[in-house]
């Protein structure tokens, strides 16, 4: 995954996946910067906010955790509205 990030450093999803894998591997200190970079590159993607919120909560940063969860919830609502398909009323 680090190779994918190296080849396409502006690809937010690669940073998100790297952060997810590092968190799952028990390396949250390494995961957090990757997730922050994913958010910086694509602030409309909700997943990194949630994952970073989980890491911050586990580290005892409840204020930071709540901020990430709230930001992720706002983004998710916007993302859901953008991806919703209109229905015909005829």
Topology:
Elements: H1 2-7, H2 12-24, H3 28-41, H4 47-58, H5 62-83
Helix pairs in contact: 2-3, 2-4, 3-4, 4-5
Task: Explain this structure.
The protein is 74% helix and 0% strand. The protein is built from five helices and no strands. With 90 residues, the protein is mostly helical. It has a single domain (2-81), classed as Serine Threonine Protein Phosphatase 5, Tetratricopeptide repeat. The longest helix is centred in the last third of the chain and has 22 residues, at 62-83.
Reported by name, the CATH topology is: Serine Threonine Protein Phosphatase 5, Tetratricopeptide repeat
Summarize the main sheet: none
Fraction of residues in H or I helices: over 70%
Counting structural domains, the number is: 1
Euclidean distance between termini CA atoms: 48 Å
Write a short abstract of this structure:
With 90 residues, the chain is mainly α.
Question: Features of this protein?
Answer:
0% strand, single chain, 90 residues, flat, mainly alpha
């Amino acid at each position: 995954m680090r190779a994918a990030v190296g080849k396409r450093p502006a690809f937010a999803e690669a940073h998100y996946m790297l952060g997810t894998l590092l968190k799952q591997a028990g390396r949250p200190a390494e995961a957090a910067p990757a997730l922050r970079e994913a958010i910086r590159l694509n602030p409309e993607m909700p997943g990194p906010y949630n994952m970073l919120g989980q890491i911050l909560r586990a580290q005892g940063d409840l204020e930071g955790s709540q901020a990430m969860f709230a930001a992720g919830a706002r983004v998710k609502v916007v993302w859901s509205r953008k991806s919703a398909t209109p229905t015909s009323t005829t």
